[in-house]
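Hey, quick one: can you model this chain's 3D structure?
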Amino acid sequence: MTSRRVHLLTLGCPKNQVDSEIMLGVLARRGYEMVSDPEAADVLVVNTCAFITPAKEESIDAILDLAAVKAARPGRRLVVTGCLAQRYADDLETALPEVDVFVGTGDLLRIADAIEAPPAPAPIVYRGAQHVLPTHARAARVRTGAWWTAYVKVSEGCDHACSFCIIPKIRGRHESRPMDDLVAEAASLAAEGTVEICLIAQDLTAYGRDLAGDASLARLLRALAVRVPEVRWLRLLYAYPASVTDELLEVVADEPAVCKYLDMPLQHISDRMLRAMRRERSGAAIRRLLARVRAAVPGVALRSAFIVGFPGETEDDVRALCDFLEEAEFERVGVFTYSREEGTAGATLPDQVAEAAKRERRARVMAVQARVAARRAAAQVGQGVEVLVEDARGRVLVGRTRTQAPEIDGVIRLVGQATPGTIVRAAVTGSDTYDLRGEVREDSN
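Sure thing. Here's the predicted structure for all 445 residues.
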């Protein structure tokens, strides 16, 4: 194949972004050129998400949009990768004949071979193991997005059996990457200028339990902080609550590079709902966990996620969740309506909740959290904070504090001068519901 221009569209979560960057690295080493305009591309790639129904619908729409681009010029190829390809390729072969190749999540390193496969009368499917853990040396990434922030995927897969979640059937069992490989990747990112690394996984707090020796998330954080000091911020995303250890909290509290920020999806507070969701936690245990986290890490910012409209949820359960949010005072919360996914235990449960009721419950819960978030933001006025600047237009800056994760949390808008990608000291002068306002301090540099 002589055509070498590739357009790759990434859908879904940051874990998919990492997969896309790995595929771009493979293609770059094979001599391909990346282009942002699909019309200029010879090969069109969609890295899909299949977590919930809206994500699947978005993926299908994106495939059809790029299929129209493909049809406008003979010789173009259309490749579908990621979770949708892993889960539904057998069905999509017939439903989407416009696609040339499907590449599952376990075959990302074969993306160049897939693109170069001889044309066939029906879509070709590459779908081996459920996931792959390429070493940094084999799969150096081509970065996308801001150069100062990077996601590092420390493990793949998940061993939990949450009744609402299809991910273990798509991504397979939990498997950790070697610690030395992760440190090497972080060092490589730091050499490119990265100052913030967000550690991600389907189950971040399970890191290391399947490795020989004494590997753990806490020890990985220590290693990164000591061996890659150029990375100023280390952030933890998607920590499974039952596995938050005292050792981990000690590192978050004591290691200057580790942001005092913890994202723990709790899903509900009702004992009935937690049991039905197979979340391994009671409401009382969750409250004890939050007290333990806040006692061990003074000033920690907590983010969580909750599901409303799970089968069997009652008005009492929703009121309990609203009361809990008022009590717990999370800095950040995401609330999602339950999506009935085939192949999950939740899909077969009785007492499914109507879509209109789900939406109403979500709006009600989010209204409670908005009041809490506004109080938490207002409490920061007058404080000094570190800010990672991400946009600069004259003396108007936009950035994030240590307690604001990229893309999912709010921002801080500053008055002052700084260059994107730098970390400055600032004073918080005002707040909105989710965002902050401030000014760069004169002693920042």
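One thing worth noting: The chain has twelve helices and 19 strands.
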